[in-house]
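Exercise (ungraded).
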Amino acid sequence: MSRRGEFGLIADLFAPLASSEPGALALTDDAAVLDLPAGYQLVTTVDAIVAGVHFLPDDPPETIARKLMRVNLSDLAAMGAKPRAAFLTCAFPKGLDDQWIEAFASGLAADVAAFAMPIAGGDTVSTPGPATFTLTALGLVPAGTAVLRSGARGGDLLAVTGTIGDGALGLLAARQADGSGGAHQAFLADRYRVPQPRLDVAAGLAGHMHACMDISDGLVQDLGHVCEVSGVGATVDMARVPLSAAAQAWLAEGRGSWEQIMTGGDDYELLMAFPASAAHIIAAWNASGGTPVTVIGTFTEGTGLHLTDPAGQAWTPVRTGFTHF
Amino acid sequence: MSRRGEFGLIADLFAPLASSEPGALALTDDAAVLDLPAGYQLVTTVDAIVAGVHFLPDDPPETIARKLMRVNLSDLAAMGAKPRAAFLTCAFPKGLDDQWIEAFASGLAADVAAFAMPIAGGDTVSTPGPATFTLTALGLVPAGTAVLRSGARGGDLLAVTGTIGDGALGLLAARQADGSGGAHQAFLADRYRVPQPRLDVAAGLAGHMHACMDISDGLVQDLGHVCEVSGVGATVDMARVPLSAAAQAWLAEGRGSWEQIMTGGDDYELLMAFPASAAHIIAAWNASGGTPVTVIGTFTEGTGLHLTDPAGQAWTPVRTGFTHF
């Protein structure tokens, strides 16, 4: 692609994604210059995705872009932060056609609007390798209020947002071209391709949390991370793990397993520690119609994960988490 | 590489690069949380480099890392910003050996220390393609003081830092394995591989500039950008363009050309517009021993670049700039 191609692309497709942010300087300067409110801290996260590793070349480009945006927004949510601006780097293979890039940009535009998250800058390069995208997301938290992974205490409630396991089952669903799964298949594939960052829960409940992280590598592995850095253990009652109707159906039909639900990746739900005294606040939140928050266990003094399956038996996963690396 | 490999790498090589920044949370959380001083704006820039496009696989890994850091610092300097923190994404080919990665990290560590620029986060992924690195650099400017490309006015002095053309000649030098160029060859290759971000000039003179950008794609092309967004033209007296002793020697020996000097990339010097009244400030700066600032022409009302070669003849480049894209 020529230099003219780069500038043309930026002007045509990406500059509109910056239009709501004057500090982006219409993507014509060396850097963006953003106003920040006094009394806040800056929360910064970065995620990279590579064709053939994190997505397949025949995945819909719109959803690739939206997932990239949303996994970063999910990281901001996990810190209790509010989105401020994003920076996108695209490494395009020379053979990639304009239609693919246009579809990618249109998916991004949808989420720039949905989350009021402008693309305030970035870089565009060519690569002899696979398409590679890196998004840097900036967010804001009132100073001193960021929710870390390390704050869980023995006796805390262990809770999750939304439903668990849809990401892993959704990966299966997205890879099955036969359509035999019907509406459930479409639902799960969409859950895999377009995760929902739980910014509403972050905005509403972060002030009550002791700890939070987002579940990207599987509930069991990510719970292990929280326990490790917090110096606590945890018990999980799998009968209380919230499942979508689709996941319940696939589990009943033997199309999915508890192993996949508990250890699969790509859920992008929040895993949270609340003091026991916050139970009524969680109940009030759920009554208010926000993204459901479900208590599935407790954090415990000492170390170790203790999982109990729906039949009341101790349960141990074969593997501890999905890895993209 | 295994997930254990990723966490091991981060812990061993990258966590020390974050150690000076408590907000990096030792790279163990979903995101970094940085304190920002009141009354400042956040300056953000991103650069990506791809093996085989922006560097060669046999380039020294230390200098690849340092150049990545420095081209971003150069963008911050061009805005008049002070470095605050960086975020690094590495896409490593599966076959890359640990020694290469360790050398890369050691180069980065040198510049993290030299510029007090911690790596406060990032992402590490594997790729079936070439090694690809993306750095997001955050900097700070007192609110309202960022120097944009768009502020040049007719009558302004056109000035540059350091010496011009070493980047393009250095690329040639770095690609010649015969060593016939001696000390000049080594000097130029080093200038190409390890550019010097002109943060001292930014800190000392930004308050006097009308406009600034860093020269990455060649003096002529980048001057064209400043003129275009500022709505002005420019004249350049090539006899005043500052050349290193090495560049002068290569020019005299026919190993380099004015075409390469004026339109080659990778200088990472600053191109600046100053009001004519700032001439004595520039003189005082130069007398103080900072990175030399040289007036090479003037910005003019209207449009168009008018270049005069050292013999006093009008000069037009064959091409207008180097492109990585």
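Further reading is listed at the end of the chapter. For now, observe: The longest strand of chain A covers residues 82-93. The longest helix of chain A spans residues 61-78.
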